[in-house]
Amino acid sequence: MTQHDLVVIGAGPGGYVAAIRAAQLGMNVACIEKENALGGTCLRVGCIPSKALLEASELYRMATGHLSEFGVNVEGVKLDLPKMLQRKDQIVASLCKGVEGLFRKNKITRYTGHGRILAAGRVGIEGPQAQEVSAKNILIATGSISAPLKGVEVDGNLIGTSTEALTYPEVPKHLVVIGAGVIGLELGCVWARLGAKVTVLEYLNRILPGMDTELATEAQKTFQKQGLEFRLGMRVTGARVKDGRCVVECEGQEPIDCDRVLLAVGRLPNTDDLGLDALNVARTNRGFIQVDRHFQTSIPGIFAIGDAIPGPMLAHKAEEEGVACAEGLAGKYCHVNYDAIPGVVYTDPEIASVGKTEEQLKDAGIPYRKGSFPFMANGRAKALGQTEGRVKMLAHAETDRILGVHILGPRAGDLIAEAAVAIEFGASSEDIARSSHAHPTLAEVVKEAAFAVDGRAIHI
Ligand code: FAD
Ligand code: NAD
């Protein structure tokens, strides 16, 4: 039986990053992945392909209308969907190959097959490389899967999840999206930009639960102008294919006829087929593996990270945990600051957030001051033709320490990095306001929001 220091199950951003960091720290590391390509949900069917389609569909939208606002007239614009999909596939393939290269460079043993934990220190591999391997420590990084919805009959074609919505061979005439969360909005925007009628059905009375309410409401209005139809407060009771069409049923409503359905009501941890019950590994009632602050499960020597454990289901959160867990195993300091993990929705405009929302501060009774500044008053945003949205900064009313930053606007996903660093370093709004920001940049809106915390924004 081959002996390793660490066997990682799953090669997503949590697992492959943990494997690399552990190898850098001198461990003999193996990684078991059931798919042929490395990179997990994120690289294969998540973050990367969705962003490739978001960028491409946005260019198409610009070319078919908005470029003329810049005095650039283009004629005869045509959508080449097969090429757009092929470009996305090439980006995915090159990044997955990149992870293979990183594994070779770091001398990580790769096993292809389904990993199952037989006991602490022993993992069985099923598939082409069937065998048993042993390890001082085992790390579960098996990620998540799309959550099903009672009555919705996913056929992997006309009624599907995000994975199918990344590969539709033609633009649907009418796409119904169930769930106004991150996936529903990002992929709904892609297909709306390419010409589909998109109807988003959401159970709650708002979109993007968990994000800043004020900005989410503002964003909804913008998405509506872009052609997305929202039907909030809708309880979907079923969806099925009938005579080549899809029928979606909602409580108290007429059935909706459409070409395709995207089910996006959240994701569940992928922890069912790993042998955890036989070992009595503690899990929450939704299946997330419970871990301590060193990411150790209830069984010594078995660790877990990423989407398989509680917390935001984000690639960079999984990566942070992968690094921290590997460093902990090497006897180093093991810590992730969950207050400084940003979240980004890559729509147009983007929505980004780090730290606490106003709602959370109110609920916790924490006194805060708020500074808000619109992109409308920023020179660079005007030059870009992207003036919607604002930066909102929340700072402690007494100490001025930054508690949360929420951005709706152009490149919000890049701008939020400054706020995440500020929170990580315990910065005050005064620190950001006193730091020089190049002119003319979108980042000046972050600085002005910091000034606005103290009621002294300059350019408004
Ligand atoms: P995963 O990436 O899910 O990887 C788990 C791996 O384990 C998979 O490769 C799986 O095949 C393998 N595996 C599972 N069970 C076994 C087993 N028994 N044996 C062997 N291998 C196994 N997050 C962001 O931060 N930004 C984004 O823009 C973003 N966009 C997304 C878009 C979509 C459409 C989706 C679906 C998700 C997106 N996410 C995004 C979320 C992100 O993909 C996940 O949070 C992230 O991939 C979690 O990483 P992970 O390593 O925990 O698990
Ligand atoms: P989500 O949790 O973001 O949104 C699900 C939405 O579905 C919610 O608004 C919820 O109220 C709604 N919903 C639940 N049940 C419903 C029902 N019966 N009828 C109608 N609506 C219902 O989940 P998601 O969009 O599926 O994304 C899953 C995960 O993937 C998220 O946790 C997210 O972190 C991750 N992700 C991240 C990114 C990113 O970082 N840009 C992109 C895509 C996915």
The CATH architecture name of the largest domain reads: 3-Layer(bba) Sandwich
Major sheet details:
7 strands, mixed
User: What best-fitting shape do the alpha-carbon axes yield?
Assistant: globular
Q: Output the radius of gyration.
A: 23 Å
How many domain regions?
Answer: 3
CATH C-level category of the largest domain? Alpha Beta
Ligand identities = flavin-adenine dinucleotide, nicotinamide-adenine-dinucleotide
Please estimate the helix content: 25-40%
Task: State the oligomer.
Answer: single chain
Structural class: alpha/beta
Could you characterize the architecture of this molecule?
The protein has three domains: 214 residues, FAD/NAD(P)-binding domain (3-Layer(bba) Sandwich), CATH 3.50.50.60; 107 residues, FAD/NAD(P)-binding domain (3-Layer(bba) Sandwich); 113 residues, FAD/NAD-linked reductase, C-terminal dimerisation domain (Enolase-like, domain 1, 2-Layer Sandwich). With 460 residues, it is of the alpha/beta class. The chain is built from 14 helices and 22 strands. Helix 1 runs parallel beside helix 9 and helix 3 packs antiparallel against helix 4. The strands form five sheets. Strands 1, 2, 3, 4, 5, 6 and 17 form a seven-stranded mixed sheet that branches. Strands 8-15-9-10-11 form a five-stranded parallel sheet.
